[in-house]
Amino acid sequence: MKSPAPPTVRDKQREETREQILRAVARQLDNGQMDDLSFAEVAKDAGVGERTVYRYFPTKEALLGAFWSWMQAQAVATPERPRQARSLPRIREAIAATRDTHRPMRILLATDAWEPQVNGVVRTLTRVTAELRAMGHTVEVVSPDQFKTFPLPTYAEIKVAIGVYEPVQERFKAFEPEAIHIATEGPIGLAARRICVEWKLPFTTSYHTRFPEYVSARLPLPLAAGYAYMKWFHKPSGRLMVATPTMRDELTGHGFRNISSWSRGVDTEAFHPRGPSDPDVFEGLARPVFLYVGRVAVEKNIEAFLGLDLPGTKVVVGPGPQLEELKAKYPTTVFVGSKSGEELSAHYACADVFVFPSLTDTFGLVILEAMASGTPVAAYPAPGPIDIIPGSGAGALAASATEGLREACLDCLKLDRKQVRAFAEKFSWRACAEDFVRNLQPYPEPEKTRFWRRLRRLARVRRRRPEAA
């Protein structure tokens, strides 16, 4: 197999021009609203002609889709050390709107994150989809595996869909959804959002990943640029679903509105404590075992864990772009690569403490998976852990976002593993799915029927015109 030809000078110039344009978009978003974004101003800021911008990005949706992909690529590139997260106050729970969670609906889910990706967002969406179908709902998933894709630069495991607008439009027409949820802000999410806005269809969105913080920590770009994009994307949404009160508080502070709680769940059958006859996957390692499970990437702040002076052994489970670097830097840490199914469950159950050092997650599903396995969790007081751990008896928080993680790890060794498991049993995927349905904005019955009837009639008229010609 031939290796790909090295990039030519012309290729490099094209990539530099493209990056100039996307950086100009970021600066424009920092200075104004998304709705005010113009190709002329972007071209002027980038130092190129307006025609050049149109040659690279023929529509505003193409420009914003590229900006999102570029922002995501920067989020997983190797950066400087992440900035210290500021502490966030918690706010009271919002009153959930009344919804009939038992009436079957036709629900369309548009997402740029789906299998074979392995992360908390994908696990949440796949499990909720399965629960919705078990509850009698019909769910249509629009995901990257249904389109042509290209691998995200610096992170090939993530595939970005291309050429999605017209196919997604056809999926809407064929499925005739009663409720629409857009789970991500990427190309598929952008296409679904555009359709909903143009056709005046109500829809909901969810906030899973803190890309503005990721990008701002890695590039000389202001936090406001990322949030300008995110606010523009979620503004027309009937409800913006978030996993925790702390996350809701943070987004409220950034000017988001219509925010509702959407709980998370855990499979307490798949993740369970180690039985008396179960083998110890860490046999031969010095105890106690402190475990991390997740993507091995800089945004996960793993070095804050690996650099701790702890007794016993540190174990890391998971793949990612920072894996080889950390293996070389921390030779006494055991890196076991990706695990799934029973193997993953056994790693959770055989560990003494699970360590969650991230400051930038919106929840941290692995926290519940560890707790369901009876393993207590040590974490920083960031969104997710600060909402789950205090008062649970299932873990310990560090004193601040930069200090005290070692003490929290050692405190976890004193906790009752049976109490840890009992706390996790309060979370279920069925309750998570019911929360999701309550938050949906289904089209009112009479309006829904008339809308799809008009759309079908319009499609027939369009088909007849070429025949008549």
UniProtKB/TrEMBL annotation:
This is Glycosyltransferase family 1 protein. InterPro entries: Glyco_trans_4-like_N (IPR028098), Glycosyltransferase_grp1 (IPR050194), Homeodomain-like_sf (IPR009057), HTH_TetR (IPR001647). It holds the Pfam family Glyco_transf_4. Coiled coil: none annotated. Residues 38-57 bind DNA. PROSITE patterns: HTH_TETR_2. It comes from the Bacteria. GO terms for molecular function: DNA binding; glycosyltransferase activity.
